[in-house]
Amino acid sequence: MKDEKGILFILSGPSGVGKGTVRKELFEQATDLKYSISMTTRNKRPGETDGVDYFYKSREEFENLIEKKQLLEYAQYVNNYYGTPRAYVEETLAAGHDVFLEIEVQGALQVKDNFPEGVFIFLFPPSLEELKNRIVNRGTESSELVINRLKEARKEIEMMGAYDYVVVNDQVEHAVAKVQSIIQSEHLKRERIEKQYKKLLEDEMK
Known about the structure:
The chain is built from 8 helices and 9 strands. By secondary structure, the protein is of the alpha/beta class. It has a 5-stranded parallel beta sheet with strand order 2-7-1-8-9, with helices on both faces. The protein has a 4-stranded mixed beta sheet with strand order 4-3-6-5.
């Protein structure tokens, strides 16, 4: 039975938890998932393609989309906007594809407000000690920044209640397998099957 509509999966969690690594590993395996392409006002870098790496927009175009509530979430970093376009996500879902979004906690909470039917997965560090080691081992932050990031991570972990699932990222391959199980079980949910079945019956009656 063909799914009539895809599902939006949101992978989120504190900084340093390894969201990007899990997402890369997930997409390196055979998957029908479509990655949610972000929109930005920053300039295109050499080798980047519009509609593949990002959707590139002018500041005016981006602010117009904010005004029209056409973004599932957005944020501003270093004078540039970044966000998730609603139209791209909805069109991809309508075509029957699952969409995968990997995002910071604040962005995920915005998506939850704007698209509550999404499936929200919280990637959890094995321990705060481990999270601290990961942030420190990046070697890109000063000790003051590491402390700030950890404080932020504590706050973000307290927001776990807004999510549907929690996956502990102790080993990347284990975390990926759990995410794949979540995707599979969401497709087997009674309500989804019921909806498709009713539609099937209606089509038969026509």
